[in-house]
UniProtKB/TrEMBL annotation:
Plays a critical role in recombination and DNA repair. Helps process Holliday junction intermediates to mature products by catalyzing branch migration. Has replication fork regression activity, unwinds stalled or blocked replication forks to make a HJ that can be resolved. Has a DNA unwinding activity characteristic of a DNA helicase with 3'-5' polarity. Belongs to the helicase family. RecG subfamily. One of its GO terms (biological process) is DNA repair. Its EC number is 5.6.2.4. InterPro entries: ATP-dep_DNA_helicase_RecG, DEAD/DEAH_box_helicase_dom, Helicase_ATP-bd, Helicase_C-like, NA-bd_OB-fold, P-loop_NTPase, RecG/Mfd, RecG_dom3_C. It catalyses: Couples ATP hydrolysis with the unwinding of duplex DNA by translocating in the 3'-5' direction; ATP + H2O = ADP + phosphate + H(+). Keywords: ATP-binding, DNA damage, DNA recombination, DNA repair, DNA-binding, Helicase, Hydrolase, Isomerase, Nucleotide-binding. It comes from Aminobacterium colombiense (strain DSM 12261 / ALA-1). This is ATP-dependent DNA helicase RecG. One of its GO terms (molecular function) is ATP binding. Pfam families: DEAD (PF00270), Helicase_C (PF00271), RecG_dom3_C (PF19833), RecG_wedge (PF17191).
Length: 695
C-alpha cells in the first residue's frame, strides 16, 4: 500500500478486510487507509503488568500469558447457547477460563497453544475463574498485542472486535510509514512538535503521559491549523473578488444627536468599543462582514442604530432584517421612535403587508424616500429594489448566522457595489467555536451588561408544585409587574401545541378572574399577535400565555416573571433566550422552570440554568452537553468534526494555529510555496468552506 496515496487507498484492499468488514468500517466513518490510522482510541488500558497464576485474587482484572491444556464445548439447556471451557496453565498453576456463546472457539484454542488473556477473575464453584476474557493466540516468536503494554480501546460498533481492529491498525501502521504531513516544516520546528508518523503511533501505542500529550497536541493543532488555513484562504479570496462597498465616513452629527437627545442612557464601554469597530469598517471601501455578539439584553439595538445612522449620514440607505414578523414590527416601532425625530424616515416591509400599502412602501424604498427599511427576509426578495443600500444589519438572534451574501450583494447600491453587513447574534458562542466556524469574519463582542440590572433569580419546580406559583403571581401583578407563561412545541406539531397553550390559557384565566390574561401563538394572524403584544407592553394584559413566538427580542421592561413549562424540552440557548425576556427593567426578576425532566441531559440543563445567568457559561455548557455540531446547526457541514481537537479545551492551540495560518497566507496568498498544504486543505476542508474557486 505504498503506490497509491493513503487517502486514496480504500480499506477494502487491506489484508483481512472483506465486504462485510468494509461496511462495518464505513459505518465508523472509515473509508480509506488514512481514515483508519487516524481513527484513534477512546481510551487506554494499562496491561503492562503480567500476573502469575499463583498470585491471582478474586474481583480483579488481570493480564495473563498462559498455555491451553484442554478445551471443551458444552451445550446448555437453552437452545443454541454454548459454553466454552478451557483449562490453562503457566507451567506451575492452573486456571479455568470460560466463554459464553463464542462458537468455534474450541477449534482455535487447541491444547498447547500459547494465549494472552485479559479479563476479570472471580470465585466460581470453589475455584478461581476468568470469565469471557479477551484472548489472543501468540504464534511462535511473536509477542502479544493485547497484554504486556498499554492497550488502545477503540470506539467500535457492533460486530467489530477490539482485537481484530488492533491488528488491522498495526498492519496499516507497519505498512505505511510515510504519511503526508500538511504542517510546513518551519511550523513543526517552531512548536517543537514530533513528526506526524511518530505522533500517530503514539496515539495508538502511548509510551508515556508526556509523549502522548505532545502527540495529541500536535495532531489537534494540525487539525485546527488546516481549518484556519482554509479560513484565511477564503478571506483572501473574498477580498480579491469582492465588489467595493460605499465609503461611509463617520461625521457623527446624527449619532451625536441620537445619543444626546433621544437615547435615554449613556452607552456602556462595551457598546462604545464595538460601535467604534463597526464605524471604522464602514468608512472603508472594503465590504464589512462583521459578527456582533452580545448576550440577550446587552444593548445591541443601540449599536445597530448608530451604524444605520452612519449609513444615512453618508447618503445611503440602511436595512434592518429581523428573523420574524413580530420582531420586525417591534424593531420598527423602536427605530421609528428613535429616528423620525432626527428626520430619518423608517418603513416596515413584511409579508403580511398588502396591496396598496405594500406598493407604497416598495416605492419609497426604490426612490430613496425611505432611509431605513425594517423587515424580514422579504427584504431580499425580488420585487424589492433599493435606491442605494449601503449597510444592512441582520438580527439573527439565536440562529447561527447564515450570511445571505448573494441575496444582499444583489441589493447593493450600484452596479458592482456591495453593502456593508453586520450580523447580530444573541447566542453567545464560545470564542473557539466562533473562530472555527466563522473564522473569516471579523467579530465584535459586547461583553458587559448595561448597569443597574439585578440578576434574575431562577427556580426549578416540579409540576405538582405549580400551586406554589399562584400567590406569587398575584403578588407580582398587584405590584403592576407582568408575567410570561411559555408552553413548548409539542412533537413539532403546531396544532397540538396550540391546543396545549389554549388549555393552559383557559385554566389560568379561570384561576385568576381578576387578572387580564392573554394568549399568543404562531397560528394567530400577525395583526392579532401584534395587538396582543402591544396590550401586554402597555399593561392592558398582566399575564400572557404563549408558545415560543415571544422567544426573541421582545422588550417589555415591566415583565418580571418568566414561567417556562416543560422546560427540559428546550435547549439551553433557547431557555437562555426566553429568560432574557425578563430582567430588562430595574426590578428583581424571576424565572421559573416548571418541569419533570425525563432525561439526564434534561436535568443537567435545568441545573445549569439555575446556576448561572452568564450567556457564555451557558453556551459552553451547551457545547459540552451537545457537541459543537448541534449547538450551531453546523453538523451537516462537518466543519467542527475534529478527530482530536476539542473546542472546549484547545483554546490556546486554536489561537496558535489561527495566528500561524493567517500569517502564512498573508505572506503567500495562494500558498504557491506550500503546494502540498494547499492540496491537503482543499481536499479536507475545501468543500465545507466552499473553497472550490481557489484551486
Ligand atoms: P439586545 O442586545 O438583547 O437586543 P436591547 O438592545 O434590546 O438588547 O437592549 C436591552 C435593554 O437595555 C433595552 O431596554 C435598552 O433600552 C436597554 N439599554 C441598552 N443600552 C443601554 C445602556 N447603555 N444603559 C442602560 N440601558 C440600556
Ligand atoms: Mg435585540
Amino acid at each position: 500500500m505504498t503506490e497509491k496515496k493513503l487517502h486514496q487507498q480504500s480499506v477494502r484492499y487491506i489484508k483481512g478486510v472483506g465486504a462485510v468488514r468494509e461496511k462495518q468500517l464505513n459505518r465508523l466513518g472509515i473509508q480509506t487507509a488514512e481514515d483508519l490510522i487516524l481513527f484513534f482510541p477512546r481510551r487506554y488500558e494499562d496491561r503492562r503488568g503480567l500476573t502469575s497464576l499463583a498470585k491471582l485474587r478474586p474481583e480483579t482484572t488481570v493480564s495473563l500469558l498462559v498455555r491451553v491444556v484442554a478445551v471443551e464445548k458444552r451445550q446448555t439447556s437453552r437452545k443454541g447457547f454454548v459454553i466454552i471451557q478451557g483449562l490453562m496453565t503457566d507451567g506451575q498453576d492452573f486456571l479455568r477460563a470460560v466463554w459464553f456463546n463464542r462458537k468455534g472457539l474450541e477449534r482455535l484454542l487447541t491444547p498447547g497453544k500459547e494465549v494472552a488473556l485479559y479479563g476479570p477473575i472471580d470465585w466460581k464453584y470453589g475455584h478461581l475463574q476468568i470469565t469471557n476474557p479477551e484472548f489472543e493466540i501468540i504464534e511462535e516468536g511473536e509477542s502479544p498485542e493485547s497484554i504486556g503494554q498499554v492497550v488502545p480501546i477503540y470506539p467500535l460498533t457492533a460486530g467489530l472486535h477490539q482485537r481484530w481492529f488492533r491488528k488491522l491498525i498495526r498492519f496499516c501502521l507497519d505498512n505505511s510509514p510515510f504519511i503526508f504531513d500538511p504542517l510546513p516544516d518551519f511550523l513543526r520546528l517552531k512548536h517543537a512538535f514530533p513528526p506526524l508518523y511518530d505522533s500517530i503511533l503514539e496515539m495508538h501505542y502511548p509510551q508515556g503521559r508526556e509523549s502522548w500529550k505532545k502527540a495529541r497536541d500536535r495532531l489537534a493543532y494540525q487539525e485546527l491549523f488546516v481549518l484556519q488555513t482554509g479560513m484565511a484562504l477564503r478571506r483572501g479570496e473574498r477580498s480579491r473578488l469582492a465588489e467595493k462597498a460605499p465609503i461611509l465616513p463617520e461625521s457623527g452629527r446624527l449619532k451625536e444627536r441620537f445619543l444626546k437627545e433621544i437615547f435615554p442612557y449613556p452607552l456602556t464601554e462595551a457598546q462604545k468599543k464595538v460601535s467604534l469597530e463597526i464605524s471604522q469598517d464602514m468608512a472603508l471601501n472594503i465590504p464589512m462582514h462583521r459578527l456582533l455578539q452580545g448576550d440577550v439584553g446587552s444593548g445591541k439595538t443601540a449599536v445597530a442604530v448608530l451604524a444605520l445612522l452612519q449609513a444615512v449620514e453618508g447618503g445611503y440607505q440602511g436595512a434592518f432584517m429581523a428573523p420574524t414578523e413580530i420582531l420586525a414590527q417591534q424593531h420598527y416601532y423602536r427605530l421609528h421612535s428613535f429616528l423620525e425625530p432626527l428626520g430619518v424616515s423608517v418603513v416596515l416591509l413584511i409579508g403580511s403587508l398588502k396591496n396598496r400599502a405594500r406598493e407604497l412602501t416598495l416605492q419609497k424604498i426604490s426612490t430613496g424616500e425611505a432611509h431605513v427599511v425594517v423587515g424580514t427576509h422579504a427584504l431580499f426578495s425580488d420585487p424589492v429594489t433599493f435606491s442605494n443600500l449601503g449597510f444592512a444589519v441582520i438580527d439573527e438572534q439565536h440562529r447561527f448566522g447564515v450570511l445571505q451574501k448573494n441575496a444582499l450583494r444583489a441589493k447593493g447600491a450600484n452596479e458592482g457595489q456591495a453593502p456593508h453587513i453586520l450580523v447580530m447574534t444573541a447566542t453567545p458562542i464560545p470564542r473557539t467555536l466562533t473562530l472555527s466556524v466563522y473564522g473569516d469574519l471579523s467579530v465584535s463582542v459586547i461583553d458587559e451588561m448595561p448597569p443597574g440590572r439585578t440578576p434574575i433569580q431562577t427556580r426549578w419546580l416540579k409540576k405538582k408544585e405549580e400551586g406554589r406559583l399562584w400567590a406569587f403571581i398575584r403578588e407580582r401583578c398587584s405590584a403592576r409587574e407582568r408575567i410570561y407563561w411559555v408552553c413548548p412545541l409539542i412533537d413539532e406539531s403546531e396544532t397540538l401545541s396550540v391546543a396545549s397553550v389554549t388549555e393552559r390559557y383557559e385554566y389560568l384565566k379561570k384561576l385568576f378572574p381578576d387578572l387580564n390574561v392573554g394568549l399568543l401563538h404562531g397560528q394567530l394572524p400577525s395583526s392579532e399577535k401584534e395587538t396582543i403584544m402591544r396590550s401586554f407592553a402597555r399593561g392592558h394584559l398582566d399575564l400572557i400565555v404563549s408558545t415560543t413566538v415571544i422567544e426573541v427580542g421582545v422588550d417589555v421592561p415591566q415583565a418580571t416573571v418568566m414561567v417556562i413549562e416543560d422546560a427540559d424540552r428546550f435547549g439551553l440557548s433557547q431557555l437562555h433566550q426566553l429568560r432574557g425576556r425578563v430582567g430588562r427593567g430595574g426590578n428583581q426578576s424571576y424565572c421559573v422552570l416548571l418541569s419533570n425532566p425525563t432525561t439526564r441531559e434534561g436535568v443537567e440543563r435545568l441545573k445549569v440554568m439555575c446556576a448561572t445567568t452568564d450567556g457564555f457559561k451557558i453556551a459552553e455548557a451547551d457545547l459540552r452537553l451537545r457537541g459543537p455540531g448541534e449547538v450551531c446547526g453546523v453538523r451537516q457541514h462537518g466543519i467542527t468534526d475534529f478527530r482530536v481537537a476539542d473546542l472546549l479545551k484547545d483554546r490556546s492551540l486554536l489561537d496558535m494555529a489561527r495566528k500561524d495560518a493567517f500569517s502564512l497566507v498573508e505572506c503567500d496568498p495562494r500558498l504557491s510555496e506550500e503546494q502540498g498544504l494547499l492540496d491537503y486543505v482543499l481536499r479536507t476542508v475545501g468543500k465545507n468552506l466552499e473553497l472550490a474557486g481557489i484551486a
